[in-house]
Design a protein that fits this description.
This protein is α/β, with parallel strands linked by helices and 190 residues long. The protein has six helices and six strands; from the N terminus they run E-H-H-H-E-H-E-E-H-E-E-H. The protein has a six-stranded parallel beta sheet with strand order 3-2-1-4-5-6. The two termini are 13 Å apart.
Length: 190
């Protein structure tokens, strides 16, 4: 049974490649469609189009707007249990995502609410300006979302941020959800 936290936190959590494996599913679809063999480790820049020379931005980004795409995306190992742990410990959890409006219904129904049934629309904030959202901690893989925010910053390591100096920029770097839970529990006094 989870302990109640000494300090109740408002935990902000990114969605793409933080709680779910967008990149893995996206590359699989693009590779199958265009006969490529791009691997997640090769995506060392936030702009995924750089690993698909010859494809237009519309071809690359259009894939995630196709019907049925979000049903192919799976959770990051440990994320489902971690968010449940945070809620059971008395914290507030909000998914903060910059999802384009046309993808929102399918992404939430076929992915978020399917794998995280204890979350609802009351737990979802859609914005590309995450620094404006008030919370105690933000967990994200995008350094641009963490920079200049007025919250504790937890950066999930990804090929496109591995060379970023998280510590020098006031962030805690983690590699998995076990490490994230440990960091959040420390912040909460557990």
């Amino acid at each position: 049974m989870d302990q109640k936290a000494k300090r109740k936190l408002t935990i902000l959590v990114d969605m793409d490649d933080t709680i779910e494996q967008l990149l893995k599913a996206w590359l699989k679809c693009l590779n199958e469609k265009y006969g490529r063999d791009v691997k997640c480790e090769e995506v060392v820049d936030w702009d995924i189009t750089k690993v698909y020379p010859g494809l237009t931005r519309e071809q690359v980004y259009g894939e995630i707007n196709l019907p049925g795409f979000w049903g192919k995306v799976e959770p990051v190992p440990g994320a489902v249990e971690a968010l449940k742990h945070f809620l059971d410990s008395g914290h507030k959890v909000y998914i903060v995502t910059a999802t384009p409006y046309q993808s929102v219904p399918e992404k939430m129904d076929d992915l978020l609410f399917k794998y995280f049934p204890y979350l609802s629309w009351e737990n979802v904030i859609i914005t590309s300006s995450k620094q404006l959202v008030h919370g105690d901690v933000l967990i994200d893989d995008g350094v641009h979302n963490l920079e200049n925010g007025n919250f504790e910053k937890i950066l999930i390591t990804a090929p496109y941020n591995k060379d970023y100096d998280a510590e020098a920029n006031g962030m805690t770097r983690v590699s998995n959800w076990k490490e994230i839970v440990s960091e959040v529990d420390k912040l909460a006094g557990l």
